[in-house]
């Protein structure tokens, strides 16, 4: 693997957006069945602001091969108040879009995990996105990116790394690096008021799992 890993900068943002749209969201289990949701995700101004904020913290990484992005680890600080804020914001979103359904599901999973109560820490570094181009998968790049985020977290004094895995493959990467699953929610168990399953990713992706490791 010849990819070079370095800090993700704000000047990378436009290429990052292209990578997320063309290489990440199309393979992400929660978005695969919903092309409209992929577009909503990329067009949402709050999502863009959030990603810019993460980059500005100096805690996100990018993998480059021949000068182009082939992998990204978007990460930043997470505090207990953020968990509650995410939950409130998700409830205020319109309920008729796939974006709102995904955000609400992830906010609920995040809240139920009770990460800060479990580890009794004041903050954590949260890995929001781990994406690797299909052309360089199965070469250990995802693991390299996460391991590098761990080192960034340690260098900045974070006591914990947290992430929410929405695919079986990302969960395997985290497990291989020693992370533990604190809480999981099967997609089949997440239903609307009428009893219909809200999110239906394709097999083998059957659950979302909040994972963490002390740094």
Commentary on this structure:
With 215 residues, the protein is α+β, with helices and mostly antiparallel strands. The protein has a single domain, classed as Gcn5-related N-acetyltransferase (GNAT) (Aminopeptidase), CATH 3.40.630.30. It is 42% helix and 23% strand. It contains eight helices and seven strands; from the N terminus they run βαααββαααβαβαββ. It is globular. The two termini are 26 Å apart. The model has no long low-confidence stretch (mean pLDDT 93).
Identify low-pLDDT runs.
none
Structural class: alpha+beta
CATH architecture, please? 3-Layer(aba) Sandwich
**What general outline do the C-alpha atoms trace?**
globular
The CATH homologous superfamily name equals Gcn5-related N-acetyltransferase (GNAT)
Give the DSSP E fraction (strand runs of 2 or more residues). 15-25%
Q: Total number of helical segments?
A: 8
CATH top level? Answer: Alpha Beta
Could you tell me the mean pLDDT?
A: 93
Classify the fold: give the CATH topology: Aminopeptidase
Radius of gyration: 16 Å
Q: What topology emerges from the helices and strands here?
A:
Blueprint lengths: L3 E4 L5 H12 L10 H9 L1 H12 L4 E5 L2 E11 L1 H13 L5 H16 L1 H5 L4 E9 L8 H15 L4 E6 L2 H9 L3 E7 L20 E8 L1
Parallel strand pairs: 4-5
Antiparallel strand pairs: 1-2, 2-3, 3-4, 5-7, 6-7
How do you describe this structure in short?
The chain has 8 helices and 7 strands, in the order E-H-H-H-E-E-H-H-H-E-H-E-H-E-E. With 215 residues, the chain is α+β, with helices and mostly antiparallel strands. Strands 1-2-3-4-5-7-6 form a 7-stranded mixed β-sheet, sandwiched between helices.
């Amino acid at each position: 693997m010849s990819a070079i890993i370095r800090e993700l900068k704000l000047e990378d943002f436009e290429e990052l957006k292209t990578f997320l749209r063309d290489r990440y969201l199309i393979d992400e289990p929660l978005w695969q069945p919903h092309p409209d949701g992929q577009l909503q995700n990329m067009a949402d101004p709050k999502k863009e602001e959030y990603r810019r904020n993460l980059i500005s913290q100096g805690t996100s990484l990018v993998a480059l091969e021949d000068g182009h992005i082939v992998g990204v680890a978007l990460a930043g600080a997470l505090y207990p108040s953020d968990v509650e804020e995410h939950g409130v914001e998700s409830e205020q979103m319109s309920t008729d879009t796939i974006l709102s359904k995904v955000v609400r599901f992830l906010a609920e999973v995040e809240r139920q995990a009770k990460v800060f109560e479990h580890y009794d820490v004041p903050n954590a570094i949260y890995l929001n996105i781990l994406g690797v181009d299909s052309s360089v998968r199965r070469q250990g790049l995802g693991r390299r990116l996460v391991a590098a985020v761990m080192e960034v977290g340690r260098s900045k004094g974070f006591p914990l790394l947290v992430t929410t895995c929405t695919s079986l493959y990302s969960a395997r990467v985290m497990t291989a690096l020693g992370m533990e699953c604190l809480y999981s929610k099967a997609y089949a168990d997440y239903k609307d008021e009428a009893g219909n399953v809200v999110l239906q990713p394709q097999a083998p992706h059957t659950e979302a799992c909040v994972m963490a490791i002390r740094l």
